Amino acid sequence: MPIVTPIKTLPKIKHVRAFTVRGGGADYHDQGEGHWIDDHIATPMSRYPEYRQSRQSFGINVLGTLVVEIEAEDGTIGFAVTTGGEPAAFIVEKHLARFLEGRSPTDYEKIWDQMYFSTQYYGRKGLVVNAISGVDLALWDLLGKLRQEPVYHMLGGAVRDELQFYATGARPDVAKELGFIGGKMPLHHGPAEGVEGLQKNIAELADMRAKCGPDFWLMWDCWMALDVDYATRLAIAAHELGLKWIEEAISPDDYWGYQQLKRNVPKGMLVTTGEHEATRWGFRMLLEMDCCDIIQPDVGWCGGVTELLKISALADAHGKMVVPHGSSVYSYHFVITRHNSPFAEFLMMHPGPTEVVPMFHPQLIGEPVPENGRLKASALDAPGFGVELNRDIAMHRPYSH
Ligand SMILES: C[C@H](O)[C@H](O)[C@@H](O)[C@@H](O)C(=O)O
Ligand SMILES: [Mg+2]
């Protein structure tokens, strides 16, 4: 008679709760006055002069942060934060919770499938997939806490000893001093500001190149603001200044435009995009239409870890790098486990930015930050995503079920 060792069964999911929080954190555009992240940055709304100076003026921070809590029958709580606020809380409480409560947290594939296909008639991308992502991340956090394992162990373990980061912010010169491998700047002027605006962009890049020296990576984040013609002219003008990549230059829906831009840019310059793309199907379009050199899904917006695993494998088959959009510990636990994710993004959330502060401050207690632009894998060695929710911040539960 074979000896049958009983398998460990985890407690079932008892409650799913959704809260909203304002002021920084996962909705990192929700910052106070004078922050670099809201200073005349080019966007698709820059064609309207009244919305050109500030992205908050057109509502970039209108949603706020969604906090998802999943409580198991033994009282263990997994949680996650993402962008979504009150409307996302409604979707979690009134629609998604039914696919988790009473289920095992190990059923994350079936749970994801039911969350996605039950909302497909009104979701597929954007806010709904942000909500699904938040639930999925909280589920992985719960799994890690129940199994007493960091998420990256459950994803296959570290393929390197440490993470290395480039920094996103208005001061690549400071990023270089802080040990980052590169600096990604927001593009300040879009097509509506004509040739004069393009020349100002180039002058800003030239200034940073002079401050950072010839080899430091310099990139532009164009936040969907441009058209193919303007992006092509900008890339050609920036080439002699060693621009490493031009990011999210045009609308995420214009796959054909990205295909053309990738053909137009000077040899050696990379085209990147993806932070506002979602699911394996959206990234399949970017990959099969050869839209870019690096895809940049945000794990809090693309469908969560369960979906990013699929997206990353698809990219790997296409020989493409996956460098997730800055999403704090949620991307660190993923990037450390993937050969085709050789570095990560660190969003500089200090107002200057002249200091390294936790990316989702003040929402996550124990959020690790890079030192000298690096983070050891061992810094992630704590159950789940290794952070706790700061319960001193004002949280609101607008809906229940
Ligand atoms: C810096 C950019 O304008 C965005 O604010 C940034 O969040 C995003 O595009 C990024 O890649 O970090
Ligand atoms: Mg970006």
From TrEMBL:
- Its Enzyme Commission number(s) read 4.2.1.90
Site, Increases basicity of active site His: residue positions? 298
The catalysed reaction is: L-rhamnonate = 2-dehydro-3-deoxy-L-rhamnonate + H2O
Q: Where is this site: Transition state stabilizer?
A: 345
Family the UniProt entry places it in? Belongs to the mandelate racemase/muconate lactonizing enzyme family. RhamD subfamily.
Misc: Reaction proceeds via a syn dehydration.
Q: What is this protein called?
A: L-rhamnonate dehydratase
Organism of provenance: Sphingobium indicum BiD32
Q: Which gene encodes it?
A: rhmD
